[in-house]
Amino acid sequence: MPVLPRFLRRPSSPAATVDQDFLDECATIQPRRLAGYTTAQAFYDGDHNTKLTDRAKKFLQQTGIPFCENFCEPVVDAMTDRLAVTGFLTGLGDEGRVEAFEQWADELWQRCRLDATQQMLWQRTVTLGDGFVLVDLAPDGRPRFTVQQSSRVNVAYSDETPDTLEWASKVWVTSKQGPLNPGGRPIQRLNVYWPDRVEKWYRLHTGDGSGGAGGWSAWVDADGEDAVVPWTRPDGAPRGVPVFHFANKPCDHDYGRSEIRGTIPQQELLNKLVIDLALVLDHHGEPQRWVTGVEPPRESGQAVPSWAIGDLWVSGAPEARFGQFEAANPEGLISAIEGTLSRIARRSRTPLHLLVGGDMPSGEALRSAEAGLVAKVKGRQGSWGNRWEDAILYAANLAADEGGDVVVPDDLIVSCQWQDPESRNEKEQLEAAILKHELGVSKDTLIRELGYDPDAERAARASDLEEAQAMMVRVFDRGPDQPDDEQDDRVAA
To answer: CA of 143: how far to CAs of 32, 35, 85, 375, 397, in Å?
Structure first.
């Protein structure tokens, strides 16, 4: 393998060759993390590997869809449904807001269709524990955001500043043709993102998913782009690692944990209880009658007695006995199922009415029931909002460096705005907004809290005012609808 330039090597490597061990490290997703992702995604999707008897399979899995009573999905959805970024507010020292930047951020959000993208991000982050967003330049030179598959990304944080990424990597398998792969063979690609560059590597794919060890070579794209893409600002300063990590409850780890991790054991118990209930009702759900000492009737030539619903058996034999087995009482299983559902709700801090439906509480009872869920969502809004603020500032600097129409002051402060996670009726929201306005909260802030875009509302009000003024002008220009003499005649009559 040829000797590569200094900037293509790991900074700590003293050798003037490619650090194959380090690239192997970048390309290896921890098996434990992958197993956790697989389990969490399977339980969210309803693939619980439930155990059924052959008879139960006939009526519980006749469509081919694996049977389960899946409550992992609503636990995730109850949380992600309340996570929605609505915009960004800015501050600049004591000089107030930078409305031009806010407008640019809103336009970028809409152009990149981040309303839908963020929901994909929240679903992956809450379900798997980790979500990753890559911010780079689209072919047209404008910033773009792409949600990455969590099972393809590695990140490494600094020991000195644990919130700072030293590097990130993305690994995937492809058959894309290029100067180094003209035959379209399956190869393993690896991108390593440093603060000042992006390195692109490849090696032949072994087919067993491991990729083997070593064998990395620099990748060159079909458009002739170099294997190392400088990632610096016009003044030569590093732009920073373009990967933004959204971790769910990392708890002193580099990676997060699935929100349903603690729910899965109870989910497995729930599946068993539901299957047990189905089997009990199938075999013992109705009274069963029995008879002894009587020869059952047989049709001509039949070896097996002929039984028919509604048959009346009469026997004068002294040894004949008739009786009935009572139906099994399912109340114990039903109580156990309800108790397991209650534990799932408490364990995940998900209101029970969002899991099982029924009458929804109102007023103070609703706020009390949803307090745990709301607190959980607000906690994530704090940490994940910081990530979105960093990502928007990063994209703004990219756009400014490429000659875009955005100015990013050095002391600009960006604040991520979220949809209110609390359940409120419109009357309560409006009354609360009026009280906040009387206390000095700005109209723009209140309009955002109510779920509207302040800029769009200003434009709509201006349009309404122009239309009303135009109508008044038309009325004055036209004058009275009828001539004065006709009006006088009508008054006289």
So the answer is: 34, 33, 18, 33, 9
In whole angstroms, give the CA distance from residue 78 to residue 151. 24
Burial letters for 149-187: b for 16+ Cβ neighbours within 10 Å, e otherwise? ebbbbbbebeeeeeeebebbbbbeeeeeebeebeeeeeb
Residue linked to tokens 């199938």 = 282
How many C-beta neighbours within 10 Å does residue 55 have?
11
What tens digit of pLDDT does each residue of 111-142 get? 999 989 999 999 999 999 999 999 999 988 89
Q: In angstroms, rounded to a whole number, what is the distance separating the alpha carbons of residues 217 and 174?
A: 15
Q: Give residue-wise pLDDT tens across range 196-225.
A: 999 999 998 876 555 568 889 999 887 767
| Segments making up each domain of the chain, as ranges | 453-493
Residue type at position 398: L
Q: How confident is the model at residue 299 (pLDDT cuts 50, 70, 90)?
A: low
**Encoding tokens for residue 254?**
């580099």
Q: Which residues of 346-366 are buried (b: 16+ CB within 10 A; e: fewer)?
A: eebbbbbbbbeeeeebeeeeb
Count Cβ atoms below 10 Å from residue 207 Cβ, excluding itself: 9
Pairing mode, strands 130-137 and 243-247: antiparallel
